[in-house]
Design brief:
This protein is mostly helical. The chain folds into 2 domains: 10-150, Tyrosine recombinase, N-terminal domain (DNA polymerase, domain 1, Orthogonal Bundle); 166-356, Orthogonal Bundle (hpI Integrase, Chain A). It contains 15 helices and 5 strands. The longest helix is centred in the middle third of the chain and has 24 residues, at 185-208.
Length: 362
Amino acid sequence: METTVKNATYHEQMDIQNTLQLREVLKTLPGFAKGYFRAIEPTTSTKTRISYAYDIRTFFRYLQESNPLFKNKEITELKVDILDQLDAIDIEEYQEYLKVYEIDKSMAGAVRDAQITNGERGLKRKMSALRSFYAYFYKHQMIEKNPTLLVDMPKLHDKAIIRLDDDETAALLDYIEHGGDQLTGQKKMYYEKTKLRDLAIVTLLLGTGIRVSECVGLDVQDVDFKNNGIKVIRKGGSEMIVYFGNEVENALRNYMDEREGITPLAGHENALFYSTQRRRIGVQAVENMVKKYAREVTTTKKITPHKLRSTYGTSLYRETGDIYLVADVLGHKDVNTTKKHYAAMDDNRRRQAARAVKLREP
């Protein structure tokens, strides 16, 4: 069945945008790269493919900028055999380059040159993209060697799980609900205009653990108050019903009553959450909103929508002790991902340790 852009769902629209964007990026890559992206299409999302395309483009721009073999060559004219001209040391030098590099404004699409830095995770993703790229051509015997296998991947160090404590969660919701009492003028008007929406979004994120992308992608038809569930599109495109409790229900119902009075712009009629411009709210807007409110309740934690997801996962594991349930509800394909984040973490025991050691007798 054909889908027009006008009646496409949010996720279908994102796929369409990513597909068009990928076509534009491919125009800047060597012609042989198209075979690789066609090959990975059945097993990857459009978001993954566009990310890999940018990463591969970074690799070729690095070669053009830094490797004498490629100095006077146009990227689009390169042939697949150029991959055989590179050795492990070339890949290692590229990995070092990725830690910090400059791109000019014509490449960045910005008003000034940009400096790009990559931490452990950024490095690993870009190196994974390059390994996958090389592996395709090596597997199909289009090149004779794969130097990316001779270079160690960046090691990822575990990061501390940042989430809200129970009192901070309550303070955050209370602030969204009543924080505007101290405001005046335009700020007061904006607060009143967005309060019920913001409270519904934050309560939903805290009460279900859904991703911010899943939240903004919700249509009004995805909410089922009869069973207190929402239909979300998980990573990879699978559908899942996530259930919510009374607090989420009340926040959603209050917002839905207000939503009835909003006349959306054409093409945004089905969106559950609207921006003040009457469009479907975007990921960046939700991230900015969460950070704005969180700053009022904690100065030591950098709270993002993903940290609200961590807060939910921690609370659910603490209450149930069922790591498989946590993995299922959060939409983790591998329970080991969940174990790494939640099962090994028990702040209460750490706090007991702090109280157990006495430096001086009272």
